[in-house]
Amino acid sequence: MSAAFRALPDVEVPDLKAPLKLGPKESLLHGVLDNGMTYYVRPCSKPAQRAAIALAVKVGSVVETEDERGVAHILEHLAFNATKDFENHAIITFLESIGAEFGACSNAYTTADETVYEVMVPTDDDKFVRQALHIFSQFASHIRCSPEDLTKERGAVLEEWRMGRNSRGRAQEAQWTLMLQGSKYADRLPIGLESVIRNVPASTVKAFYDRWYRPENMCISVCGDFQDPAAILATIKEYLQPCTARGPPIEVPRFPLVPHAQPRFSAFSDSEAVQSLVYVTYKHDRSRMETPADFVDYLADELFQSAFNERLFKLSRQDSPPFYTAQIGSEPLTATIQCKTLGAQPQEGRQHSITALRTLLTEMARIRQHGFSERELDIARSKLLSDIESSYLERDQTYAPDMRDEYIRHFLHGEFVVGADMEARMSKTLLPRVTAGDLQRIASSCGTDRSCVVKTVAHKSWEDEAALKAVVAEVEAAEAAGAVPPWPFDDAPARLVEDLSPAGAIVSRTELPGLGATELVLSNGMKVTFKCTDFLKDQVLLSAFAAGGLTEVPQRDFRSATFANNIAGELGMFGLRPEVLSDVLAGKRVAVGTGESAYWRTLGGDQSPEDLETALQLVHRLFTTQVEPVASRLETCKQLARESIVSMMRNPVSTWSQRVKFLNYGECYYFKPLTLDDVDKVDPIVACNHFNQAYQNPAEWHLVLTGAIEEEALLPLVEQLLASIPPTDSPVPRSPQQATPLPFTFPESPVREEVRVPMVAAMTQTQITFPVEVGADSTRRGEETVWLSLVSKLLETRLLQLLRFKFGEVYTVSVSSFFGAEAPSRKGNVRGDLAISFSCDPASAARLIDLALDEVDQLQSLGPTQDQVDTVRTLVKRALETQVQENSFWHEQLVGGYKSRSFQELGNVDAVYRRFTASMDTVLKDASPRLAQDAFQRLLPRPSRSRFTAVTLMPAPTMWQRAAMAVADLGSTSFTPRSFTLAATAAVVTSLATFAVVRAWRKGQRPF
């Protein structure tokens, strides 16, 4: 714990029931405008020169009538389409012209109880905030709801509806309906009904808008980097105060919890479900967190969840675990209903969900009967204090969107806001008042007679509701008989590292002034680079990498090697079993994990500066301990892998995604889908040996640290924990220039392919991919990389304007590039690809592919407009302005720089960074429509249809559809004996035979 946090004085709380005052009063402007609209204005310096603004409307889908189901969400879409003062998506055009990208910086959401519009705009020119507040005034009172506007948005909303019709969406909808049965909420999901989306008249939408969008139902929250909050308030009054109600007053209704003493049960099955799941949910009234007493209840609930989750984690680590993972969480369902949910992922198959359910219910009963130990409470308390301390240390570095959203929650749900300093003091004062008895009482409020819902999800009906009821009755009987024993406790080692090797030494030091970093070489050959920053006071990013990845593994051992990190994680990669390590790390904010790609071995983490020593101890143990196979644990790991493979085969999107990769990389072995046979061939001894050798020789490794680092404290730790890792002669350190390249090739000819998969609900996903090569010349390569990012953003912007805003046929479009398959050792051009992705109505997929290809051709033949170039240039510049204020940006510059081909050429990461900045400056300064056109011609195949792949996920025809198509072929005027294929014959015969079986069954007869 930091000295600053320890020194925080307690706060006097004479009355736990007294409402807390909104704050912090010295920096917040809060009140109500003359028209009834609430406002919040507060300065916030992070990110610099940005303001986060939101308009919240205390109205969502629950107030809709039957013929309005989905209208609240449709209205949210219409807001960005047109208002009184902005036509034809001009709002989006303006926001992107100042760097507020649609989606990332400007968006909206609708829930059952609220609709919130959000933007983040620059503050380096006062007119940007003024214009943003003008836009919010339009949302408040002047959204245009004409038939023409509605027609333009129906397609995008329909696609959003369609995107939610996958297996997860169907399960969530069923869960929502089951939990809220008896309440109006049950049939008021925000997305609404397809029939309403397709057919609702504009007059109905307009009536909903006029009825509910009233100033007294709204608040405006502005938090950002501005010097004069009073001036912001004056602008709010200028634009928002004239907004008036457009009808008589109407109270927003509230729909309370409908309690039920008998639990509800559901055994939900869906043929596309990717995993079996078990849920036990306890519902209760949602209370407003307004007083210190409410805050104590919140702290108690956080401790309860933390201690419970620790038990569930340990249960999942047993040799024959009742589930792979499990967790308890508390969240608001609606404005009036809160829920606490136990969830688990069991092994697939009959009885496994029953075992998981029995375990979850038994653990809740165990806590009701025996509670938690003081040791468990201390561990949970230390974890929560660690989180509170982190928030306190970064109290002056709160992000504007987070601060803005706090005040939105205050308006919508009465959640208190007192400022990070006061909240930390309250936490330190009140947390010791929470006892183990308080946590036991929380468990007592979670009984199956307390509005409980029990549900299982699986791809088959492994069990029925009667089986679920029987488990509940069984556990209730055991608890009533006192047959649930206390929790068994294990001891954990007090320290990670007991006996250290003799400390090593730092043998050289190099300053990197361009990056503001320092590079060290240690006596064992390991390299360490660190950069001290003040962006976040409680963050240090850690990454390490070594050349040589999975392409160096013999083909016979490839699959075993790919499992090495998973197996090591299951067994314990730091010399301790994961459940023991969890206890050792209790109260510490530290995480270190490993990974391996085609060409690199890696490890990484994110920790508090106070816990940096612990992170480096983990690195030390990683290199100085061995992972040994344990048969019982390995079987669990392999079983989970088998189930993952089978479940992915049921998932239409996974099947499509695997085909896309396999096709685009020339059927390269590295991208070949994993099979059950592959899992069965995994040799755990080979996997463990591979892992142990991968993290053995410190001379191969380069470790990078970025964040709130104190050099004086770091250097002794580097010598003690990193330089002391014993050197080894084997394996010989590998160079990136020696990497074995993947044997991949992009198809030479155009490929258009449909991946037809049986689906419960028709949907589609399309990816259009082009091969991309960036020149071998080192200086030119940097500029080409920047040009490729501009080309991607220009194409994405154009396609979004075309496919969503003009034709209304997609919800979103993404364009991205990928170079991860190219070996760092390869000479010549750097090969990669650029991909366009979108989903749409299956009937429109082929046409939209052609439209996208036409758009690429047009950009190559005519180029973009000056406005489009200016907008993209601004988006890139504004994004960079924000990124350079983050540790992650500088960390990636260091790690990515060291791993780049440029580093192999220049030998200095500072020089790599200078090349990056010079390339960025040159391209952004020179960018013009003509140069952008040249880049499209140079980087992408020309014409676009000369070399590309377009792979579309499509629903497979049903048996009846196949029969109908075959019959249609028979009746075709162009019929010849050759056109009646064997497949068509089989489809007709199969369908007719099945029809006979079904008809016979319906008549109660035997079919044959």
Describe this structure in words.
With 1008 residues, this protein is an alpha+beta fold. The protein has 34 helices and 23 strands. The protein has a seven-stranded mixed sheet, with helices on both faces. A six-stranded mixed sheet has the order 1-2-6-3-5-4, sandwiched between helices. Helix 20 (612-624) runs parallel beside helix 25 (711-722). The longest helix is centred in the C-terminal third of the chain and has 29 residues, at 778-806. The model is unreliable at 971-1008 (pLDDT under 50).
Arithmetic mean of pLDDT: 91
Strand order of the largest sheet: 12-13-14-18-15-17-16
Helix content: 40-55%
Assembly of the depicted chains: single chain
Count of separate DSSP helical elements = 34
Ranges where pLDDT stays below 50 over 5 or more residues in a row are: 971-1008
User: Biggest β-sheet, characterized?
Assistant: 7 strands, mixed
Please report which band the strand proportion falls in: under 5%, 5-15%, 15-25%, 25-35%, 35-45% or over 45%. 15-25%
- Radius of gyration, whole Å: 30 Å
Shape: globular
Alpha-beta content class? alpha+beta
State the total count of DSSP E strands: 23
Give the end-to-end Cα distance, rounded to a whole number of Å. Answer: 78 Å
